[in-house]
Amino acid sequence: xxxxxxxxxxxxxxxxxxxxxxxxxxxxxxxxxxxxxxxxxxxxxxxxxxxxxxxxxxxxxxxxxxxxxxxxxxxxxxxxxxxxxxxxxxxxxxxxxxxxxxxxxxxxxxxxxxxxxxxxxxxxxxxxxxxxxxxxxxxxxxxxxxxxxxxxxxxxxxxxxxxxxxxxxxxxxxxxxxxxxxxxxxxxxxxxxxxxxxxxxxxxxxxxxxxxxxxxxxxxxxxxxxxxxxxxxxxxxxxxxxxxxxxxxxxxxxxxxxxxxxxxxxxxxxxxxxxxxxxxxxxxxxxxxxxxxxxxxxxxxxxxxxxxxxxxxxxxxxxx
Length: 320
Hints:
The protein is an alpha/beta fold. A hairpin with a 2-residue loop joins strand 2 and strand 3. The longest helix has 21 residues.
């Protein structure tokens, strides 16, 4: 018994030594963590790598975001932005996507659009309701570029549910910045129809006078839409007779209709359709379920692998 106990103690010591010796190595292997994000006070020091950092935007300290720098560093690295839905689960987005950012050498950014400060962020925001969320993301990316040296002129943009609304509208408003947009289970969409006012179409809106769209540019953006095959409920889905006629009634139906409309719009202009839809069987309207059982992380970064950051612009461990 004593010999067995000694052997077990020796084995445990060897395992701990092995872990300790490898913990500072730069690795392409995914990392996981469920601890809260580390707040960074001293930005003059090099940013820690391989952990999620909780930052406040210098230009507007009320605007917060999470940042993950992979073990390989941020200099010249691609940037992946993940935007939460109305549950404001931005820490969950950062935690679940961090292993994929690490494996692919990407800098991960997860902005926090609060209900008090950005209650209309899904539609890019407007004056009197927290300001423009698209411009806030631009400011965050400018800061991230300065802090990390990552490539922020073009980036990969993902959003789920309400974040998917933000993502596709941002991509259509700022196509020159998007390497690929990844739209996860949006509740409703902005259709490529100039006869319908924004945010349901491309037409002018008195509420959003400064938002403009050019189909010749945004139809060149590669966009992948992901939706669960079982995402057929109508809870928290914006409904009206007009919306239902245009888009359908469920997130799955609306995703398919929007993709079809975008592809038709491209074909009608002599452009190659660059919008595709991926329906994953058995997945309901849950970001965590999609990540853990629908391989959403693998699917998203698989799509990113098809569009390297060097492509031409569209217009030519978490710790407190």
